[in-house]
Amino acid sequence: MKKRKPLIVLLCVCISICNSFSQTASIIVGSGSFLTGGANAYVHIAGDIRNDGVVNTALLSIWDFDGSAQQRITCASGTGCTNIYNTDNYYVRLGSVYQNNAAGISVEVNTIIKGIHFFNSGTSEIKEGNYWLTQTSATPYSNNDNTSKFFITTGHGLLKQSNVSAGTLFPLGSAANTNNYTPITISYSGTADTFGVRVFDNVYFSYNTANGDALGGLSNYRFVKKTWIVKKSNRTTGDKFTITPQWNLVNEEANFTPQRPTNICIARNHNGFWIPETAQGPAIPPTGLGPFKYTGIVTYDNAPWEYYPTSVTAINIILPLTGLSFDGLYNTGKVYLNWSTLTETNTDHFEIERSINAVDFSVINTVPATGVSSTKQFYHYTDEQLPLRDAVLFYRLKMVDKNGHYTYSNVITVHKNPVSGNILVYPNPAKDIVNIIIADNSGKYVVQLYNVAGYMEKQEDASMQGNVITINCAELSSGIYFLKLINKENGSIVTTKINIAH
Please, are residues 220 and 202 in contact by the beta-carbon 8 Å criterion? Predict the structure, then answer.
């Protein structure tokens, strides 16, 4: 059999396809090249679309992916693409896609589909490129099911849909099988907007709001073990939308399952803590083998955060405490621990746990909680009885409510020989007093505070008092300041940012 040759579009060449039939192994469009037109065109492709230029075909064009191995929409080099997802450039624009390849399609560059994506065979894997279904006059996908004919997200890329208003389904999962088919439906009562979603396994303490990646350790206890990352194109602080995730029995953490009939809700992650959004209720259906659904509201509490982690949880019955921030610093044989909460309801106490291997923890002390508070609360503890031989220590908080329910904070790492310049400031935000601990505490210091415009608002000489420098900021206006600490003996300088809120 004669080998089919790839259709290659060379540099600075513009080719237009119209009313045509093409059968080719791969289409390669080099930098500066254009593949355009395609009204009523039918392109039967057995290989990849490799593009560093522009592929822009008409709404009524049909792209029939029918290879024997996974076919890629990727960069011209074919070696993969990075950081494509976080740009607004969509240089591949296709009409309708007929997915006839059982091995599926891999999306590695931002791609717009103007028509319909037909799942005739196989799964579409969204990696580093967003796959944007822009069709709004009809459902932009067809023939999907829960066995393998759906979108899976394995990288940073999102499945995007335009004109999301009432009950838009995103048929996706984390792997190409029924157990990992975990779609989500989004409704929005404001002006119809574009939403993008990716889903991956497990729930974590914290996430990178710039790309949705997990940052902290596992936090699956009493959760559906899936994170749905949602990105809304137009965001304002306080904006709300409704989500309905779907999951399977196998996706539930063991302690979540008994609560499913009555005590679950939607939660979103904020600054390393999961916040329940709505009152608890039963899943639909409440019992059985599933799949299950639950509907709840998600609130944008910070509009610049593009990627919002959401999940389903029974967290309300664990600990009604939100917005935990936890850090620590070693200084002259002691570890200074500092944490704060945004709100507390029925919180009883914090158990401080320490480990030398980040696995085996033991309680070193207990600190009473405020208990009931709608304002930010600050806590401090100094660990003075340190293990002698261990250069690195690990700490976490066990947060216990008055009913005995508890959960854990993220684990923080404290080095007993930190890099010079490490600094810990508390409380932050501060009201009248700011306490400063630094790793290098020798000598005397000059403390300077600058406003965001770069003007120095305060300067004073300071010395360590009990390993802490304390400065008065009561006379300063509320706002963000940059703190500069200058060692008068060796000239070293450390800086950090603080928030003053009277």
Answer: yes
Domain residues of the chain, as ranges? 18-157, 166-317, 321-415, 423-500
Choosing among 3.30.70.100, 2.60.40.10, 3.75.10.10, 2.40.240.20, the CATH entry for 321-415 is: 2.60.40.10
Angle made by CA atoms 61, 232, 180, in degrees to the nearest 5: 75
What is the CATH number assigned to the segment(s) 423-500?
2.60.40.1930
Q: What is the mean pLDDT of the chain?
A: 85
* H/E run at residue 482: strand 479-487
CA distance 71 to 73: 7
Beta bridge partners of 22: 43
Tens of pLDDT, residues 120-136: 999 999 999 999 999 99
**Range in 13-27, 147-161, 276-290, 455-469 the model is least confident about:** 13-27
The pLDDT confidence band at residue 57, using thresholds 50, 70 and 90, is very high
| Letter string b/e over residues 195-225, b meaning 16 or more CB atoms within 10 A of that residue's CB | bbbbbbebbbbbbebebbebebeebbbbbbb
Dihedral pair phi/psi, residue 180, rounded to 5°: -110, 15
